[in-house]
Amino acid sequence: MDLNIATRVRHALKQPRKVGTWEIQTHVLGNGAWAEVRLAINHENQHVAAVKIVPKDTCPASPGRQKTRGEIEVLSKLNHKNTVKLLEVIEDNDFVYI
Question: Could you tell me the pTM of the whole model?
């Protein structure tokens, strides 16, 4: 993972952050070239999930943005016990939360 991406996500999310009905935790589950994955808790229904956090400025209108859109499209169509289930996609000014 690009150190700048990791640094920006960690700096922005030093404390748990409320995004929609989800609270993004500080615990990092993993990371990759375009994003970081963190634990999230929905306090309305007690769901616990992994959320992929993609900084918007890491993939400006290029292959990264198309890859993110493609991933969202594919995940939204999948429904199988051995694949992750897309629950929600939320965007703010800085990040896309998948």
Answer: 0.78
Alpha-carbon span 91 to 97, nearest angstrom = 6
Per the model's pLDDT, the better-predicted residue between 43 and 12 turns out to be: 43
How far, in Å, CA of 4 to CA of 98, rounded? 20
The answer on pLDDT for 79 being more than 80 is: yes
Name the token pair of 70. Answer: 């493609």
Q: What are phi and psi of 56, to 5 degrees?
A: -65, -35
Q: Give 98's contacts (C-beta < 8 A, 6+ positions apart).
A: 35, 51, 52, 54, 68, 71, 72, 75, 86, 89
| The pLDDT of residue 1 | 45
